[in-house]
Design a protein that fits this description.
Layout: E1 3-4, E2 7-8, H1 13-16, E3 24-28, E4 31-32, H2 36-42, E5 47-54, E6 57-64, E7 73-74, H3 113-119, H4 130-139, E8 144-147, H5 153-160, H6 170-177, E9 182-188, H7 195-207, E10 212-217, H8 235-256, E11 261-263, H9 265-270, H10 293-307, E12 316-323, H11 327-340, E13 344-351, H12 368-375, E14 383-387, H13 404-411, E15 414-418, H14 422-430
Parallel strand pairs: 8-9, 9-10, 10-11, 12-13, 12-14, 14-15
Antiparallel strand pairs: 1-3, 2-7, 3-4, 3-5, 5-6
Helix pairs in contact: 7-8, 10-11, 10-14, 12-13
C-alpha cells in the first residue's frame, strides 16, 4: 500500500532526499509502509533507504540521520488511513445507549490497535488481523490496552455478540510470551460476568502476567430501548465486586509486590465505601478507567495547599459544577481550603444528568443544557468552574454542542474549565 506525502519539514532528512509534498512513500529499508506504525518504526535507524514515487517516477534515496530522529514527512492524518471501527455489538456498549440527534462522530466506535499505542485507547482484539498481531510482537509495541470483560470464551462471545470474541483472546497469550505489557479493562455487568466469572477472569489475567486490570461497573443510560436487559449496580452487588477485587489484589501484592488489580472509584461510591488513600493506587496505572482519580486529586490538592501562602484578605465566591458522584469529595477539598483562605467561599453544585439519565453521575458526561437549566437561577458568585473532562478534547464544546461561551452567556457568569488535577483546582479557586 502506498501513502501520499502531504508535506515535508524544511531541512529535514526527507527534504534533503528530495521528497516533496504530493510524492508517494512506498517503503523504508525495504518494508512496505501501510500506516503510521510502520512509518514510525522503520524510520528510526541511522540509515534509512527510502523508496518513493515523485512526478510519476520511482526513486530511491538514502537518509542518514541520528538514530530515532524523525525523517520529516507529514501525512493527511496521523494514522495515514481510516480508523478501524468496532465490529462488536456489546450488550453494555455506551454508544448504543446514546440519545439520537447528537454529532455523528460521537456514534463512531473505534477498535484500532494503532490508537491503543498512540493514545491509550482500549481494543477488543476482535479487529486484529494476523498481520497486526505479528507486527505488535515484531515491533514490540507495548503496552497494549485491551477490553477483556471476561476470559470465558463462550461468555465473551455472548457479551460482544461476536462469534470470534473468544478465539481472539488467544492473542493475549502470544503477547505475554513476547513480553508485551497488557493493561486490561473489565466492564462488569451484574449477574453476567461478576461473581465466579470475575474470579475466573482475574485468575486468568494474573497467570498472563498482565500489567494492570481495571474493574469498572457498567454504565446504563435511559436510552436502552430494544437493547439487552441489564441490571444496574446497587450497594450489595458493588460490595461483592469490591471484595473480589480486594482479595485478588492482595494476593498480587503478596506474590508480585504490586496490586495489579484495581476497582474504579464509581464502585466504591455505589458500595458506599471509603475510597482508598493514594498509596493504595501505587503509580496510578488505571487512571483513564476512573481508578484512583479522587485519591490523586485529593493528594495533589493537599500538597498544593500545604505550599500555598495563607491569605485571609483574599475574597472570592465561586461555584464548582460537577457530576453527582464527585460532589461530596469536592466539598471535602473546599473545607480544607477554608483553613488558609477563610474568605474564599465555594459552592459545589452537583448536576443531575437528565440528558443521559440519572444513573449517569460522572462529571465527564454532563452536557451544556443540563448545566444551564440547573444553574440558571442560582447565585453563582464570581465564576463557575467545570472540569475540562466535560468538554470535547481541545475544544470548548459540551457533548450536546453547547459551547462554553453560550453557557456563560446564558448564566451571565464567567465559565472556566479546569484541568483534572488538585493543583489546577486550587489555583483556579484562589486566583
Amino acid at each position: 500500500m502506498a501513502v501520499k506525502v502531504n508535506s515535508v519539514v524544511k531541512s529535514s532528512s526527507a527534504d534533503r532526499c528530495g521528497i516533496k509534498a504530493g510524492d508517494t512513500l512506498l517503503t523504508l529499508n525495504g518494508h512496505e509502509i501501510v500506516d503510521v506504525l510502520d512509518y514510525r518504526f522503520y524510520q528510526l535507524e541511522r540509515e534509512v533507504t527510502v523508496e518513493f514515487i515523485s512526478e510519476g517516477e520511482k526513486k530511491t534515496a538514502v537518509a542518514r540521520k541520528p538514530e530515532y530522529d524523525e525523517l520529516g514527512m507529514e501525512f493527511d492524518s496521523y494514522l495515514m488511513d481510516k480508523e478501524h471501527s468496532c465490529r462488536n455489538k456489546c450488550i453494555f456498549c455506551f454508544i448504543d445507549q446514546m440519545p439520537k440527534g447528537m454529532r455523528e462522530t460521537l456514534y463512531f466506535k473505534d477498535d484500532d490497535s494503532r490508537l491503543s499505542f498512540l493514545f491509550g485507547n482500549y481494543i477488543t482484539l476482535t479487529n486484529l488481523s494476523e498481520h497486526e498481531i505479528e507486527r505488535i510482537i515484531t515491533m514490540h509495541i507495548s503496552p497494549v490496552n485491551i477490553s477483556v470483560h471476561t476470559t470465558n470464551p463462550e461468555l465473551r462471545c455472548m457479551m460482544m455478540n461476536n462469534r470470534f470474541a473468544g478465539e481472539s483472546l488467544k492473542a493475549m497469550t502470544r503477547f505475554a510470551q513476547a513480553g508485551i505489557d497488557m493493561n486490561c479493562q473489565l466492564v462488569i455487568c451484574p449477574g453476567i460476568n461478576d461473581g465466579k466469572e470475575l474470579e475466573r477472569s482475574l485468575g486468568d489475567l494474573i497467570a498472563l502476567n498482565v500489567n494492570s486490570v481495571a474493574v469498572v461497573p457498567v454504565g446504563l443510560t435511559d436510552h436502552r430501548e430494544g437493547l439487552y436487559p441489564l441490571t444496574p449496580f446497587n450497594k450489595e452487588t458493588a460490595s461483592e465486586v469490591l471484595d473480589i477485587v480486594q482479595k485478588y489484589g492482595d494476593e498480587c501484592v503478596e506474590k508480585f509486590g504490586r496490586r495489579i488489580i484495581f476497582a474504579s472509584d464509581e464502585l466504591y461510591i455505589k458500595a458506599e465505601r471509603l475510597i482508598p488513600e493514594s498509596e493504595y493506587y501505587e503509580d496510578y496505572p488505571c487512571l483513564e478507567n476512573g481508578v484512583g482519580l479522587i485519591a490523586l486529586q485529593k493528594e495533589e490538592f493537599t500538597f498544593a495547599l500545604e505550599d500555598a501562602q495563607a491569605n485571609s484578605e483574599l475574597i472570592r465566591t465561586k461555584t464548582i459544577a460537577c457530576g453527582v458522584s464527585a460532589a461530596p469529595y469536592l466539598r471535602e477539598l473546599c473545607a480544607m481550603l477554608s483553613e488558609k483562605f477563610p474568605n474564599v467561599r465555594v459552592n459545589v453544585k452537583p448536576i443531575v444528568n437528565n440528558f443521559f439519565g440519572k444513573m449517569i453521575n460522572v462529571s465527564g458526561l454532563i452536557v451544556g443544557q443540563d448545566l444551564i437549566s440547573q444553574l440558571k437561577n442560582e447565585a453563582l458568585g464570581d465564576e463557575v468552574l467545570i472540569p475540562v473532562c466535560m468538554l470535547r478534547r481541545d475544544e470548548d464544546v459540551f457533548l450536546d454542542d453547547v459551547t462554553v461561551n453560550e453557557a456563560s452567556n446564558a448564566l451571565n457568569v464567567q465559565l472556566t474549565s479546569v484541568q483534572n488535577s488538585g493543583e489546577a483546582l486550587l489555583e483556579a479557586l484562589i486566583r
